[in-house]
Write a structure and sequence with these properties.
heterodimer, A: alpha/beta, 7-stranded mixed sheet, 5-stranded mixed sheet, 15 helices, globular, B: alpha/beta, 8-stranded mixed sheet, about 35% helix, oxidoreductase (chain B), thiamine pyrophosphate binding (chain B), TPP_enzyme_TPP-bd (chain B), 2-oxoacid:ferredoxin oxidoreductase subunit beta (chain B)
């Protein structure tokens, strides 16, 4: 089991099974190993390309560390089982891709509303519908944010490389446990299937966060109440004799259903939102490259961030002042930082493997005078450094003309 | 009113009193099922702290959640068994019980029902079959009898009902029984057996819904519906001697299956012990 107190044995096991050092592996495998290091000991899933290697790795590795793997009958059952397991105390995960992610949306909303920690990996693939089943894409930016119904907060994280996939999966678990919220890991089929070198650390190097449990009987009576004033209620796990009632209906702090009182719904949903707003700086993470003096700023995420960085380096060689901003937490979107950066730039380019999704979030935070231009490519093939560089050059050209006018 | 129930009703100690009185309509069979379940728990002396009750959406989902005083998980429509699977794997030593309706468990959730039976996971399912979608206003269900009138089959139902108990039995469950709310004592005994059997167990409780089903099918009162159950029920032993013609429209009651076979969470744990031993610490053979 994963519970506190088992760390010495678990650390010993991890050290023995996955000794510190360099490995050559796929992004999907790195996500699975990240989950193991984060303490995930329950996985339920349904096979789908290009996410299946996560399930295969978990099926092989979980029993070695006394963890549980179940292949469920469909994606809906998978996330349902993950929620059930999470209420018994397991750090739990499922992984899927496009159509499977769509099927999981209702229960993802349930997990948000019942404040159930879990990690849902969406290895994005080309769509809509079955699309190009084996090809990567970045088309689920808003499905992660708004796929389930109702007013709800969410955390979504997007890794940019195989090694990053390992660490961002761990961060996904930690945020999920800390804030009692499902976290979506927006990976993509290209990184998922790319093999590259990654360094596996000592388990002691990995910071692990556990969900807060009730300190006493009194606290256990308010599984959905702000008992500590930090908006995150302690989670009374099943099997401890707390008689906890969990429902996807609007509920009072005690967990009992009340769908008739407007104030109860208002109080609950606003607390869920505030929970993330208040802790935004802890949740948000981004990387910046050469932004200090940049005239042109690239904002790119996930798989597209790497050719973007390549293009920035090439452009710098040519003497152009170009910088790159990479949100690692894509929801809640680090717009405030983009707002600051945009004050000093002439153009913003947004390279992504879709017809323009994250660009809408970027536009919200940028003053009207700064043109925000998408660099978009679909079809299952990633953007290249050359393609992005070409856009940088033509943007530079345009702004030269503008300043000449 | 809640206080009065609490003092007079012996099984009230098992109920969440702040949730009472129940939202069930007068004459609903749900109360009978709740009573039978509480009595089964009481007779088996199961500590409610060793119980997790999971339900889906609809009238019957309310029977045990929120009313039963245990850990209760009220889930999305149709998915109770899938949620319960995760709970059982996490808490293999607890009794995990799913109580929900026919529409929830056999309609939208039919796939989960079949696969849980196939896996033979140690969960007890009490499926309350009232032939109708009650909470949403009496629409046709996968269990509605052929020819019956509902709000979405206003002329008559031209679909054939699903025989839930038989389907689950052939899917591989360890224990399957069917009774009606007329057969209260038999129902209690079957729930007790289902709770003690290792493996997937299903008790189908045919239940009256005078408000949404009976009213539109010439059985306005709860008593009329119970009389219909009484008259039309055939014990399984007798049913074996009758022709299909004679069994038309009858409710076959009794135990359909009671067998031993490997249980899922136990097998899963055996496997984990095996693998962990091979790769685990302190085992020199693994080095």
């Amino acid at each position: 089991m994963i519970f506190r107190g088992d760390e010495p044995e678990q650390i010993g096991l991890l050290k023995k099974l996955y000794p510190k050092g360099n490995y050559f592996m796929q992004g999907d495998e790195a996500i699975a190993y990240g989950a193991l290091f984060a303490g995930c000991r329950f996985y339920a899933g349904y096979p789908i390309t290009p996410a299946s290697e996560i399930a295969e790795t978990m099926a092989r590795e979980l029993p070695k560390v006394r963890g549980y793997y179940i292949q469920m009958e469909d994606e809906i059952a998978s996330i349902a089982a993950v929620i059930g397991a999470s209420w018994t105390g397991f750090k739990s995960m499922t992984a899927t891709s496009g159509p499977g992610f769509s099927l999981m949306q209702e229960n993802l909303g349930y997990a948000v509303f019942t404040e159930t920690p879990l990690v849902l990996v969406d290895v994005q693939r080309s769509g809509p519908s079955t699309g190009q089943a084996t090809k990567g894409a970045q088309g689920d930016f808003f499905q992660a944010r708004w796929g389930t119904h109702g007013d709800h907060p969410i955390i979504a994280i997007s890794p940019t490389s195989v090694e990053d996939s390992f660490w961002e999966t761990i961060r996904a678990f930690n945020l999920s446990e800390k804030f009692r919220i499902p976290v979506v890991l927006l990976a993509d089929g290209i990184i998922g299937h790319t093999r590259e070198q990654i360094r596996i650390p000592d388990p002691e190097e990995v910071e692990i966060v556990y969900r807060k449990l009730p300190a006493n009987e009194e606290e256990s009576k308010y599984p959905f109440g702000d008992v500590h004033g930090d908006l995150v209620p302690p989670m009374p796990l099943f099997g401890n004799g707390y008689f906890t009632h969990v429902t996807g209906s609007t509920h009072k702090e005690s967990g009992l259903r009340d769908v008739y009182t407007p104030e109860v719904h208002d109080r609950l949903v606003r607390r869920l939102h505030k929970k993330l707003e208040v802790h935004e700086t802890e949740i948000q993470k981004w990387e910046e490259y050469y932004v200090e003096d940049a005239d042109i700023l690239l904002v790119s995420w996930g798989v597209s961030a790497r050719p973007s960085l390549g293009a920035v380096i090439e452009a710098r060689k040519k003497g152009m002042k170009v910088g790159l901003f990479v949100p690692k937490t894509v929801h809640p979107f680090p717009g405030r930082r983009i707002k600051e950066l945009s004050k000093n730039v002439q153009t913003i380019l947004v390279p992504e493997m879709n017809l323009g999704q994250m660009i809408l979030e970027v536009q919200r935070f940028v003053r009207e005078e700064v043109p925000v231009i998408g660099v978009n490519k679909i079809g299952g093939v990633p953007l290249t450094t050359e393609e992005i560089l070409k856009e940088i050059e033509s943007s530079a050209e345009r702004s030269r003309h503008r300043s000449a006018d | 009113m809640a206080k009065e129930i609490y003092t007079k009703y012996k099984m009230a100690k098992y109920l969440r009193k702040e949730a009472l009185p129940t939202a069930l309509c007068p004459g609903c069979g749900g109360g009978t099922v709740l009573n039978a379940f509480a009595n089964a728990i009481d007779q088996l002396r199961i500590d409610p702290r060793d119980l997790v009750v999971v339900s889906g959406i609809g009238c019957s989902a309310w029977i045990a959640s929120p009313y039963f005083l245990a850990d209760t998980l009220h889930t999305t429509h149709g998915r109770a068994i899938a949620y319960a699977t995760g709970v059982k794997v996490g808490l293999p030593d607890k009794k995990v019980v799913v109580i929900s309706g026919d529409g929830d468990l056999a309609g939208i959730g039919g796939n989960h029902l079949l696969h849980a039976a196939r896996r033979n996971i140690d969960i007890t399912v009490i499926l309350v079959n009232n032939f109708i979608y009650g909470m949403t206003g009496g629409q046709v269900a996968p269990t509605t009898p052929f020819g019956a009138v509902t709000t979405t089959t206003p002329y008559r139902n031209v679909e054939h009902p699903l025989n839930i108990a038989e389907t689950v039995a052939s899917a591989g469950a360890s224990y399957v029984a069917r009774w009606t709310t007329f057969h209260v004592y038999q129902l209690i005994e079957s729930i007790k057996k289902a709770l003690t059997v290792k493996g997937f167990s299903l008790v189908e409780a045919i239940s009256q819904c005078p408000v949404q089903f009976g009213r539109r099918n010439r059985m306005k009162t709860p008593a009329e519906m119970l009389r219909w159950f009484q008259k039309n029920s055939v014990p399984i032993s007798k049913a074996k001697t009758l022709s299909p013609e004679e069994l038309k429209g009858k409710i076959i009651v009794g135990e359909l299956v009671n067998r031993e076979k490997p249980e899922f969470t136990e097998e899963l744990n055996f496997l984990i012990e095996e693998v962990a031993k091979q790769y685990g610490l302190g085992d020199k053979n693994a080095d």
